[in-house]
Design brief:
The complex is a heterodimer.
Chain A (H helix, E strand, L loop, with lengths): L1 E11 L4 E7 L1 H4 L7 E5 L10 E4 L2 E4 L5 E9 L3 H8 L5 E8 L11 E7 L6 H10 L4 E7 L8 H6 L3 E6 L6 E2 L3 H10 L6 E6 L2 H13 L3 E5 L15 E4 L7 E4 L6 E3 L11
Parallel strand pairs in A: 8-9, 8-12, 9-10, 10-11, 12-13
Antiparallel strand pairs in A: 1-2, 1-7, 2-6, 3-4, 3-7, 5-6, 13-16, 14-15
Helix pairs in contact in A: 5-6
Chain B lengths: L4 E3 L2 E3 L3 E3 L21 E7 L12 E4 L2 E4 L7 H15 L4 E5 L4 H12 L4 E7 L10 H4 L2 H14 L4 E4 L7 H10 L5 E3 L3 E4 L1 E2 L4 E2 L5 E5 L4 H14 L4 E3 L6 H10 L3 E4 L1 H5 L3 H15 L18
Parallel strand pairs in B: 3-4, 3-16, 4-7, 7-8, 8-9, 10-15, 15-16
Antiparallel strand pairs in B: 1-2, 5-6, 6-14, 11-14, 12-13
The chains are: A alpha/beta, B alpha/beta.
Amino acid sequence: MDVEAVVRSNTRLSDDYNVVALDAPAVAERARPGQFVMIKPARGTDPLLRRPFSIFEVVTGSDGRPAGLTLLNKRVGVGTTLLYEVEPGRRVACLGPLGRPFTLVDPPAEAWMVAGGVGLAPFATLAAALRARGVRAALFYGGRRNADLFFTDRFARLGVDLTLATEDGSRGRRGLVTAPLAEALAARPAAPPLALYACGPTPMMREVARLAAAHGRRAEVSLEQVMGCGLGGCYSCVVRIRRGGGTPHFVRSCVEGPVFDAGDIVWEELAP
Amino acid sequence: MDLSVSLGPLRLKNPLIAASGCFGYGVEYADLVDLSTLGAVAVKGLFLEPREGHPPPRIVETPSGMLNAIGLQGIGVRRFVAEMMPDLRRLGATVIVNICGSTRDEYVELARILSDVEGVAALELNISCPNIKEGGIQFGCSLTGTHGVVSAVRKATALPVIPKLTPNVTDVAAFARAAEEAGADAVSLVNTFLAMAIDVETRRPKLSNVMGGLSGPAIRPIAVRMVYECFQSTRLPIVGMGGIASAADALEFAIAGATAVQVGTANFVDPLIWTKLRAGIEDYLGRHGLTRWMDVVGTLDTAGR
């Protein structure tokens, strides 16, 4: 599904972060938590390629049906800067939804989401889906500083237990979010079952994978690789995985991911 | 409008071909694109055996283009035949199989295997991938190597044989002539331009393979020139490619002498480009009082230049 989506709004959250709302009902109604879209933020050939973005929220219209979606964007390069600056009313090409979504659990299992920075993006839809299933959920959310943490109220309203951490200590625990996560995992009894979901910087996800394995918990990670097409055609976005003690091999993160079982990733080879 | 073209014995319903390496094995796009409406699908380059390819990062964007060094990751010809060809046949795709070998014998073996496979319409010989050391381009950068591998494959198969030429040579037309003398049915050009990009902050190459192949609109004027040189120099049908992203771009190649065209990088940006290209070409023909694509091919007017 490739649509010319009208930019409904562009909400700047800080000098780096914004949320872009797109009218894209056909994409929105198919979207599942953890999936992504390929966005061409401007016409022309520079930048040439689309950029992958997690679907942040599915927006419902007055009839209660999916009408559009939002993207949580952090400006780091040319494409994300264009999306930071995009004017409402403009059209952007939006291809999706794409990729393998998160595996949802059911009660009595509980779900802990672990987000670093813009890695919050896939968890708004996941939290909503978990709540709809009656799954108790928690969010461990870290950033450099308080000004980099967004939408905590929204997760709280969804009944998500929040644990925050900032590297400078300006909000929540000082340091990396994986420290309170490690403590919580150690303190938690074996039952009920617990599923971990992580998205953020590679070192954070790698630590979540290590902790999950150490505590016998299943974890899924959402990876962000450089992508060419998003459809499995170009073989750019590969990740080395090893399944069930087999031979490590490259798979395309656009079609076999972006969500992977954390235990399958060959973490030593993943770019930081 | 009659958009049909002939590449030697290979007849295509239209001149628009998905370029090898830019369209997976075709089946990846079947949900979005009716493969039977394309002139042909040139599938991702295949060796006899599966290949892992290079570590990431495998691509990097450059002004109006991109570099890639995928390293021909692939499932090998036998899995392709077993797992992909049934779907491609069912979907009505005209399949051009791009083959790559480390030795001349490997090309011949691939040609023999594929000659017996229902639904394979032609072979494109990848003698031009800039990203692997052990094969391919070592043939494509030598006139005798090109002649040798094309004539060996020619003897091994009745399928149409289309060598894909590299632009990383001084005189590409000489390679088209070598292919013609060796019995090729057509030539396709250009593969990517060997290139590199450096992160100046870290002084590291942006690709894991250090160098890669440049594609996209940035290369189009050079590719058009090379197609024109080959058109003047051989009688072989030419499959032109290099940065085509619109009907006008495709027509530019046709006027320079390309009978058919391939679209690669633009397919990443717009996977639904095919219907737009076809509509744009038909609109052009109508505006110019023409009814056939072939009325445009090789019609460059250089009077007074």
